[in-house]
Amino acid sequence: MSAKDAYPLLEADLLPLSIGAALLGTGGGGNPYVGMLRSRELLRKGATVDILPLEALPDDAWIGEVGGIGAPVVGVEKIEQGEECYCAMRAVEDVAKVKMSALICAEIGGANSMEPVITAAQAGLPVIDGDGMGRAFPEVQMTTFFIYGAKPAPAAIADDKGNTVVFRDVVDMYWLERFARDTSVAMGAAAGLAIAPMRMDFVRRTAVPNTMTQALQIGRTVLDARARRLDVVDRVIATTGATLFFTGKITDIRRELKGGFARGEAKIAGSGDWQGCEGRIAIQNENLVLWVDGTPVIMVPDLIINLDLETGEPITTEVLRYGQRVAVIGLPVHDLMKTPEAMAVVGPQAFGYPDLTFTPLALGPVHG
Amino acid sequence: MIRIGIDVGGTNTDAVVMDGNTVIAGVKAATSKDVMTGVVNALRKVLDAAGMEASAVDVVMIGTTHFTNAVVQRRDLAPTAAVRLCLPATASLPPMVDWPEDLRDVIGNHWFLAHGGNEFDGRVISPIDEAELVAIADQIRERGVKSVAVTAVFSPVSTDFERQAGEILAKALPEAHITLSSDIGRIGLLERENAAIMNACLRDLSRDVVAAFRGALADVGFTARFYLTQNDGTLMDAEFAERFPVLTFASGPTNSMRGAAFLSGVQDAIVVDIGGTTSDVGSLQKGFPRQATVAVEVGGVRTNFRMPDVFSIGLGGGSLVVDGPDALTVGPQSVGYRIVTEALIFGGETLTTSDIIVADGAADLGDKSKVAGLSPDLIRKARDRIAFMLEDSVERARISADPLPVIVVGGGSILVEGPIAGLELIMPNHFAVANAVGAAIAQVSGEVDRVYSLAEIGRDEALTDAKARATEAAVAAGARRETIEIVDVEDVPLAYLPGNATRVRVKAVGELHVG
């Protein structure tokens, strides 16, 4: 499939998309299973959603960014009423006095890969093949859109009960994160967030390209490997250019809450090629840094992904537990996330590691 | 203490008598179509083998795949109504949305969304509306449905809504069975609701099955209490099992793995349980089956039970051996319980794996002369194929390079020729009835899964509270308080929430109280 062609998202695509998105979630982002079911219900009722390449729309088309905001574990219990993101998106349209031509994901990683698909199905809009992270990050401002100057307002947040709160004037993206976070908690820690419309020429310049297609392809690789009983981890590495950095067993998992985020650390006793070594992963919702025997080998913004050694299932940080056998793979983040502007927002320093210097991963060989 | 363990499988009903930790006798009897005749036969046989009277037995533990099979085969399921307390939340995904259509049709696809439910922190989504629930009860009655599953959002945090709604529905529908999701599952609305609905649709069957077990035991002269085993290798008493049949799911593989650990004395190993039609392969950690990390489906329905991470391959003592033009194949077709009439060694006309083993002189079973004509080449090819299948499955179950031993149990163990994948092979005494042993040694447990605000109480206090609740749950399930151990503690902060909201799961396990 060429990323240059528009294509309809079909029911059969939803499962691979959700698996690929979970993998790109780098331990966070929430599990997209509920979102997958919601999209499936809409498609079964006759809705259609086209995935458009970044080249498709004219420069002056308006693009909306929507996503769920809240705690992933709430998302699997208090499932959405269904129109949270849709209401937030319409509220932004009203205040900004524009009509959206298409929607785009804030983050392809995890549950938020599905929210724009759902809103698009409800609004009859297409979804742009790209996103603002190429992975998942914990905070609203951590998108390429905000890093490269997207306006933080007007934005809107809506809940299951019919409450919609509009942020008319917000001085910067950090204030938006603070207000949206606090409001989402008042709304039951599960809400829909829509940010200010962006022009297509801006999105074209700043989005991480082709990530819907990338997630779909990763998901298809996983499903195909399972069906053919191949080693899923090997197949993911071979088809994405990821590199295996560690295999082992989780021997300790420590978690604490700092500033409303799950911060913690997982220790892994090496196995296979890493027999006798110790791996360590720092976590803030997502995996931040992997050290092997004290040396940092992968760090944000590059992707650190824990896969179940046996099944290849991505393991999110919330369900990491003692005794799990994991393969830790690293995947280079998109170049848009490696510039000095991006480093200030998503580099190791921004996550509280002043001593680390970002050493980008190289892309490994990619083959069928 | 004299215990009897019974395992009711699809092909065989196995029974063992244990005195303390010693296996006195173990037998196999054919599973009967009515199940109960097989149980009575197995019980008589095992008492006979042990030279014991029924009155000497203190307790009977039964593992059964009856309820799992009912769901998998879509039979004996009662029409069931799912009532969810949630509005306006969760309307995007109605109950049973991710079920296979045929199963949803069998139980009628009756679902109702109503007001009620909690937020993560215990706040109310919307108050309960009694008139709304009474109107729902009227519709349930009009449709002739007598099983109801009630699920409220965040009921693991607060059970009030489910209890209130349950009382209103029970009053309006005095003949109905009502299952509350908070009695069964953990956080994860769809999975917990799925379990509650499956439980509700099994309630008619569980009443009959538990009554029949009771009848079978009385028939043989038992006065002992009896228990059923559940998915995590622990017990529930008969009354509890009657109310919560869904908790027996996956108890079969769990029992055989626990039995394998007990019989071999090995705590960390790969276990291969070879039956008549399939082999279950899983890994044992510290004497317990490794739990699956992802959601487990039963009959195509997603659940979040603790389930052993076990997979099945189509290899058993009754598997068909076909020497085709391209290659020799073994399984997945099997003669199953018809092996006693269809295998060559029993005078039948179907070549099975058991025939190959007997022809090779590796087992003494049936009439050896019936397989004397098989060519040595065919026998070698079939044995190589069986060895390859076993090796492949052990390699799949093996998740480290550590040289773990392989414990082989089950009636089909004769298929194993020697070490698998170069690992130490253990075939313990009584290997053929390991699953009945696993049932006999099952423990009782209590579990909690709650969200605490650590801003209000400290982490230590939260864990202490959770452990106390788990202990009480274990005592309520029949554990002796002084033997209770906390076997699992897990606390997960809820990301993005202030107030240090933390989800705590604790499991307590203890020896069954016998008295």
Kindly describe this structure.
The complex is a heterodimer of chains A (368) and B (515). Chain A has 368 residues and is of the alpha+beta class. In chain A, 30% of the residues lie in helices and 27% in strands. In chain B, helix 4 (130-142) packs across helix 5 (160-172), helix 9 crosses helix 13 (434-440) and helix 11 (353-359) packs across helix 12. The mean pLDDT of chain B is 89. Chain B is an alpha/beta fold and 515 residues long. Chain B has helices at 36-50, 66-72, 101-106, 130-142, 160-172, 189-201, 203-220, 238-243, 251-264, 339-342, 353-359, 376-397, 434-440, 459-476, and strands at residues 2-8, 12-19, 22-30, 59-64, 80-87, 110-115, 147-152, 177-180, 225-229, 234-237, 269-274, 279-285, 288-289, 296-298, 301-303, 311-313, 319-323, 328-334, 406-409, 425-426, 443-453, 485-493, 501-510. The chains are: A alpha+beta (368), B alpha/beta (515).
Question: What is the structural class of chain A?
Answer: alpha+beta
β-strand number of chain B? 23
Mean pLDDT of chain A: 91
Q: Please state how the strands of the largest beta sheet of chain B are arranged side by side.
A: 3-2-1-4-9-10-21-23-22
The share of residues in helices of chain A is 25-40%
Shape of chain B: globular
Strand content of chain B: 25-35%
Radius of gyration of chain A: 19 Å
* Main β sheet profile of chain A: 9 strands, mixed
How would you classify the quaternary structure?
Answer: heterodimer
H-E order of chain A: EHHEEHHEHEHEEHEHEHHEEEEEEEH
Strand portion of chain A:
25-35%
Shape of chain A: globular
| Spans of at least 5 consecutive residues with low confidence of chain B | none
Sequence stretches where pLDDT stays below 50 over 5 or more residues of chain A: none
Q: C-alpha Rg of chain B, in Å?
A: 24 Å
The number of helical segments of chain B is 14
Number of helices of chain A: 11
